[in-house]
Design a protein that fits this description.
By secondary structure, the chain is an alpha/beta fold. The chain folds into two domains: about 180 residues, Glycogen Phosphorylase B (Rossmann fold); about 180 residues, Glycogen Phosphorylase B (Rossmann fold). It has 17 helices and 13 strands. The strands form two sheets. Strands 3-2-1-4-5-6-7 form a seven-stranded parallel β-sheet, sandwiched between helices. Strands 10-9-8-11-12-13 form a six-stranded parallel β-sheet, with helices on both faces. Helix 2 links the parallel strand 2 and strand 3. Helix 3 crosses helix 4. The relative contact order is 0.11.
């Protein structure tokens, strides 16, 4: 008999990881379903699941005002399905989903921890909720060693309750991108003839460190007047401060992109990629570390999140100190000018992610956890 596994996810429009899990999880051993807690019905993920006849349920949730009604809706769905394993993702889904699952006596209550020290550093009152979620769960998936260290060291979770499962990727989609898709994006964002194109894919929030990348780019422009900065995923609560910094640039030297669906093609527009979170623990994982290397883009990184586990300076990326615009400028210049180093980093980068972040490795670990 197949084990019934229900994913409860909050505030997600589209996420390739859940599509990959739905397609790859062993259908002979597991019957998977989804509950999506969202502001509106008809998200990309919901429609994608429906198109493949994978059971998916929408529960309206915008704020704490819906907490009571959402609790009973989720409870009824889990009862009707006969769920045996609940796996929750993101804060609201974890709090609500695990609470419902415990009330029903579901013995396998899992959540994946998607943040590290975010609440400790920016929202200390939320740490109490984190600890309550930790208590409700029978198992916690840590997406990086960094997250595991935060759970154990800062929140007192017993190590045996934690399973380390890195995000898994279909890595080939970032490398083998049809040229027509790349050219379409180049035209869309008017990047023809621009060099070098410096890419950043990060929300506009303080800890992502974009405030150190923009001044570095200002200096790059002095040497490369045709350079262009692309800031993708350009939304967040630090937008006002970032927009002030962008006033130091001419509007034709940068492009802000709120959302781009074709990320694999977007990476191929970049000559250099930069991702510089402000300290070693604030990034929980950092999928962009893996995606940029899979895409073959020479990258400048600070060592945060999962990067601490596999990024090596001058081997598969160029590592810079935290909160240091000058070193970011220097790194970009070196990578642009040294083709041998650049090629070495590209090759080593692709090789370094193959085993750690393979999709099947993640799926196998999840299946073992569900059993």
């Amino acid at each position: 008999m197949r084990k019934k596994v229900t994913y409860i996810i909050s505030d997600i429009e589209k996420a390739l990881a859940f599509e990959w899990i739905a397609e790859t999880l062993n259908a002979e051993r597991f019957e998977i379903s989804f509950i999506l807690l969202n502001r509106r019905q008809g998200s990309y993920l919901e429609n994608w699941l429906k198109a493949r006849q994978i059971p998916v349920f929408f529960v309206h949730y915008e704020s704490k005002r819906q907490l009571f009604s959402a609790f009973w809706k989720v409870r009824k769905i889990l009862q009707n399905i006969g769920t045996q394993v609940v796996h929750c993702h993101l804060f609201t889904a974890s709090l609500l989903g695990l609470l419902v699952a415990k009330s029903l006596g579901i013995k396998k209550r899992i959540f994946t921890r998607h943040h590290a020290t975010l609440h400790h550093e920016y929202f200390p009152r939320a740490v109490y909720y984190d600890k309550f979620i930790n208590y409700l769960a029978t198992d916690i998936v840590a997406i990086s060693q960094n997250v595991k260290e935060v759970l154990v060291g800062k929140e007192g979770v017993k190590p045996e309750k934690i399973t380390l499962i890195h995000h898994g990727f279909r890595l080939a989609i970032f490398e083998n991108v049809p040229i027509a898709r790349v050219e379409a994006l180049k035209s869309k964002y008017q990047l023809a003839g621009k060099f070098p194109v410096i890419g950043v894919i990060a929300r506009w929030i303080h800890w992502k460190g974009i405030q150190y990348i923009i001044p570095a780019f200002v200096e790059i422009l002095r040497q490369y007047p045709n350079a262009h900065l692309v800031l993708a995923n350009a939304r967040g609560d630090y937008a006002a401060e970032i927009e002030k910094l962008l006033k130091n640039l001419s509007s034709n030297t940068y492009t802000s992109i709120a959302f781009e669906n074709d990320l694999p093609a977007l990476y191929q527009l970049f000559d250099i990629y930069v991702h510089t979170p402000i300290n070693s623990q604030v990034e929980a994982f950092g999928q962009t570390y893996v995606e940029a290397l899979a895409a073959g883009i020479p990258s400048v990184f600070t060592l945060s999140g999962v990067a601490k586990e596999f990024i090596q300076h001058q081997e598969n990326a160029w590592v810079v100190p935290f909160q240091n615009s000058e070193k970011i400028t220097e790194a970009i210049r070196i990578l642009l000018q040294n083709s041998d180093l650049r090629n070495k980093i590209i090759q080593n980068g692709k090789e370094s992610i193959q085993k750690l972040f393979n999709l099947q490795t993640m799926i196998s670990k999840l299946e073992s956890l569900y059993e």
